[in-house]
Amino acid sequence: MSQLPDCTYENDAVLITPTGPTPNHTLYLSNIDDQKFLRFTIKYLYVFTKSVRIDILKESLSRVLVSYYPLAGRLRRSCVENDDRKLQIECNGEGAVFAEAVMDLSAEEFVEFARKPNSSFRKLLYRVEVPSFLDIPPLVVQVTNLVCGGMILCTAINHCFCDGIGSSQFLHAWAHTYQSQNLAILPFHTRHVLQPRSPPQVTFSHPGFTKIAPASDANPPKLLNIFNFLQSQPLVPSSITFSPAQILHLKRQCYPSLKCTTFEALAAHTWRCWVKSLGLPLSQPVKLLFSVNIRAKMRPEMPLGYYGNGFVLACAEAKVKELVALNMNHGVKLVKHAKSSITDDYVHSVVDMLEDITVATDLTTSLVISQWSKLGLEELDFGQGKPLHMGPLTSDIYCLFLPVVGEFDAIRVLVSMPQSVVDKFEFYMQEFDGVVENGDTKNHYEVDNLKMVSV
Which helix (H) or strand (E) holds 63? Predict the structure, then answer.
């Protein structure tokens, strides 16, 4: 089977509105929420072996939307018509989209098929026909009933509204409401804790960002634009699972001179393998961008349940030669340094810098990693058991660290790569003690250099 069978919709999609009164106002988006980098939906895919009652699922969604009322609102421009540089949430109770479908497939068949995301997965999420991203409801849900009595639950949550912690918080709140349980954490919707200072005070350098030059002022690029190169060709997903034993083996390459976390070791390893597989020029600068939770880093700490994007991107930088030639310790040190730089003062500097609408996330030479493996997403339970499978609906050039259902502390690394290099990437990812680890790059890297050209 190369494609999923089609979904059959027996009824039209409906809008689920909050079951009780909710505030009717506009909600400020922080400069972190409002980045163009985050103007997309986070799409989760769950497979359960037992379905739940759809009527109660809808009713519980309606009830939980009373607390999470912004998700029943709509994204709007805050200033001039057709100027989307600053957005806000119109909390109007318009509702979330809910669709129900059936598919001639069992949960076990799907999981076997779903070892890597497939373009046909998109049919598992109801497509809302609207003119632009701003018009898409912030929460779209599709439940697909399977022939075995199981179900697939897909959700799309607007990233401007919340981050991974927030989306996991909402999904668990929905599951608790389904089972008539009290919410463990109530959402805190006010975003003014991340308001910019007046006047703005940019007190740090922020290498993860760049200024967007007007088209008329743009000079020919001096560096290879990796982002454009990847976007210019067909990509295929690469999915590699690291067991706890393999992760420990990876971390031991840094001992005893350097202690590191699982994320630091796996992020540095993935970054190096990504760079090596692309065959970049040795003098090329490359960056690693990864999200860092700032809730406990702010002074005072952000309120419990803060319901917005509570992260900033940390940035590690290196030249290709030093990243691949030196042992893994070097990459880990760069990741650790990037993490440690995220402080209260640094976050305020980011927020103030983003007052400049010409500043954007620098994706041109960057690998972006998002960690889903510590959010509790795989623990979601509506009362019929935890999921058989949890993952993203699609794969792209952003790298995800995913939880592995039933394998505590295992991590699945998912990223899309050009077909021409995906085998090489997977080889490097699974080779922990190769010749590059001993510092000899000539036979292992330069000979295989793909001489990538700028596009």
Answer: helix 54-67
Q: What CA–CA distance (Å, rounded) separates 20 from 12? A: 24
Q: Which of 38-52, 67-81, 186-200 has the lowest mean pLDDT?
A: 67-81
pLDDT at 455 over 60: no
Identity at 247, one-letter amino acid code: I
Please, is 257 exposed, middle or buried when counting C-beta atoms within 10 Å of its C-beta (0-12, 13-18, 19+)?
exposed
Report how far residue 121's alpha carbon sits from residue 117's, in angstroms, rounded to the nearest whole number.
7
By DSSP bridging, strand 399-403 and strand 366-371 are: parallel
Catalytic residues, which ones? Answer: 159, 381
Whether the predicted pLDDT of 17 surpasses 80:
yes
Strand order through the sheet with 25-28: 25-28, 87-91, 74-77
Report whether 388 contacts 107 (CB < 8 A). Answer: yes
Identify the CA nearest to 161 among candidates 280, 236, 92, 75.
75
Question: What angle separates helix 328-340 from helix 262-278, to the nearest 10 degrees?
Answer: 120
pLDDT value of residue 75: 96
pLDDT confidence of residue 327:
85
Tell me what the mean pLDDT of segment 60-75 comes to: 98
According to DSSP, the residues that pair with 293 across neighbouring strands are: 311
Quote the CA–CA distance of 414 and 399 in Å, as a whole number.
Answer: 6
Structure confidence at residue 2 as a pLDDT band (50, 70, 90)? confident
E-assigned strands of 128-246?
139-146, 151-158, 209-211, 235-242
Q: Phi and psi for 17 in degrees, rounded to 5?
A: -100, 160
Strand partners, 140: 97, 156
Mean pLDDT of the chain: 91
How much is the pLDDT for 398? 95
- Exposure string of 401-423, with b = 16+ CB inside 10 Å and e = fewer, is bbbbbeeeebbbbbbbbbeebbe
Please check the confidence at residue 448 and state whether its pLDDT lies above 50.
no
Q: Phi and psi dihedrals of 237, rounded to 5?
A: -75, 140
User: Letter for the amino acid at 236?
Assistant: V
Q: Which residue bears the tokens 């999470």?
A: 68
Count of alpha carbons within 13 angstroms of residue 172, beta-carbon side: 19
Question: Given the DSSP bridges, would you call strands 389-392 and 359-361 parallel, antiparallel or unpaired?
Answer: unpaired
- Token duo for residue 98: 């809910």
Which tokens is 449 given?
């250099």
CB 378 within 8 A of CB 385: no
Query: By C-alpha distance, which of 38, 34, 88 is closest to 355?
Result: 34
